[in-house]
Fold this sequence. Notes:
By secondary structure, this protein is mainly beta. The protein has helices at 5-18, 41-46; strands spanning 55-71, 77-82, 86-94, 97-111, 117-132, 137-150, 161-176, 180-192, 196-209. A hairpin with a 5-residue loop joins strand 4 and strand 5.
Amino acid sequence: xxxxxxxxxxxxxxxxxxxxxxxxxxxxxxxxxxxxxxxxxxxxxxxxxxxxxxxxxxxxxxxxxxxxxxxxxxxxxxxxxxxxxxxxxxxxxxxxxxxxxxxxxxxxxxxxxxxxxxxxxxxxxxxxxxxxxxxxxxxxxxxxxxxxxxxxxxxxxxxxxxxxxxxxxxxxxxxxxxxxxxxxxxxxxxxxxxxxxxxxxxxxxxxxxx
Length: 210
């Protein structure tokens, strides 16, 4: 039996129509990018309102103090008074460590030979290394030049005596922002001059900018 050309063409078209057409797989959807973890302390601090300790820093402090004077040829004496105005300026070496030039000290009230009330100032100035254990606790210490004399507003009583000493402190932050911190600080002072040793301690309220 002979198949006509029209019949063969029809069968061919039917076979082609029934063959499934290959389709390309859909392109995989792009995976949403995830935010990279901060690679450093400074990047982490820039993302929120935690203290950003870097660069220049400046601080002020003031409070109350207790001073004990151990004289070489006389009985010791203990007195109370305000602290001197503590002033410090420097820079952060790392986010946890700062190096400052700092002046701080204690004072106490005394009575001179004429029966007049005087205020004796035990001032220390020198280098101060500050370390932040975390955003709340800070530590500091350093050697200093000691200057001990009578506050001129209470009358002159000889020239100030110069010696050496040092101080150490611990601070507890009660308020922190990105560039400011307010804290309570407990500091101890040790001074040696020609005629006496002075031991002081102070509780102060401090503000620091960074």
